[in-house]
Structures are given as C-alpha cells and as structure tokens.
Design brief:
GO terms for molecular function: double-stranded DNA binding; transcription coregulator activity. One of its GO terms (biological process) is regulation of transcription by RNA polymerase II. By secondary structure, the protein is mainly alpha-helical. The chain has helices at about 35-40, 45-60, 80-90, 95-105, 110-135, 150-155, and strands spanning about 5-10, 25-30. It has one domain (about 45-160). It has a two-stranded antiparallel sheet with strand order 1-2.
Length: about 160
C-alpha cells in the first residue's frame, strides 16, 4: 500500500489517455496503526475477521447464482473474447492443486487451509464472472448486504489474483 497522508481523495478509473472513464468516488486514506499496535493485536481476532470476509465473498458469489446456467453459451459479440480470457486464467489449476498437496507437508496447517480457501474462491469467482457476462440484468455490479462488491471483498482479503 502506498504511503499517503490521511484524508479524502477522489478515486476513479482512467483510460490510457488518463481521462476518467468511471464514476468518481471518494476514497479515504486512514492512519495506519503503528507496528506495536499490530504486533499486540489478537491473532485470533484477525483470523475471525478474515474468515468473515471470506464467507461474505463466497456468499456474494453464490448470490442469485442459477445453477441451471452452469454451461455458458459463447456469445457472437464482444463477450466471447472476455469469456476466453477468463477461461485462460484457470489453465494452471492442476498445478495449483499439486503444489497445495506438496506444501501441506512443509507449511503450517493454517497456510495450507488458506491456500485451499483461495483456490476454491478463485474458481468460484471465475465461474461467477462467466455467468455474469451473460446475465443481462445486473452484470457483475452486485453488492452484498453491507454495500461491497466482489472486488471490494477480494481486495480486503488481499487477493491480488482477483484484480
């Protein structure tokens, strides 16, 4: 995370020409707790917070998911290339499983559990994105009951693979 003085700043997506191509939102930089505060924090509370975020993320990905639409017809339009791009992200799946199996002997159990949770959430996110491409109603713009979307929750969990 880049260092920034605390305060509110405008936040928006820009195109290659640096012009705003999204809605402008306000983002607030907050004071980072000192290392002593972080080191003194309860690890169990952090684990609970992470697990609650993972549950919210999984719940959002299952929200209104129609299991009957598990097979995605390829569109003739622009979404076909988007579908192909998302499908290509899952090609290393077998290697991830093998690496996870090997690492369980060498890594702490909690780390292996986290790897498994991320793998399952990653696969579910890709399936959900493929499903949302063909969803003519809302697309991927769905928020959970606390007003956060899939990218918000993935970012809060530190899942850079979702970005």
């Amino acid at each position: 995370t880049p260092h920034h003085t605390p305060g509110r700043v405008p936040f928006y997506v820009t195109c290659s020409n640096r012009l705003a191509c999204s809605e402008v939102r306000e983002f607030e930089y907050r004071m980072c707790p000192s290392w002593e505060m972080v080191a003194g924090s309860n690890a169990d509370n952090e684990a609970v917070d992470d697990m609650l975020l993972q549950i919210r993320f999984a719940k959002l990905l299952y929200l209104n998911f129609n299991k009957a639409q598990i097979y995605f017809p390829l569109d003739e339009g622009g979404s076909c290339s988007l579908q192909n791009m998302i499908c290509s992200l899952t090609k290393d799946g077998d290697e991830e499983w093998l690496e996870m199996e090997r690492s369980i002997k060498d890594s702490p159990f909690d780390k292996s559990r986290e790897q498994l949770m991320q793998k399952l959430l990653k696969e579910k996110l890709y399936t959900w994105l493929l499903w949302k491409i063909n969803d003519k109603e809302k697309g991927p713009n769905i928020l959970d009951n606390k007003g956060q979307g899939a990218l918000h929750l993935a970012a809060a969990l530190g899942y850079d693979w979702a970005m």
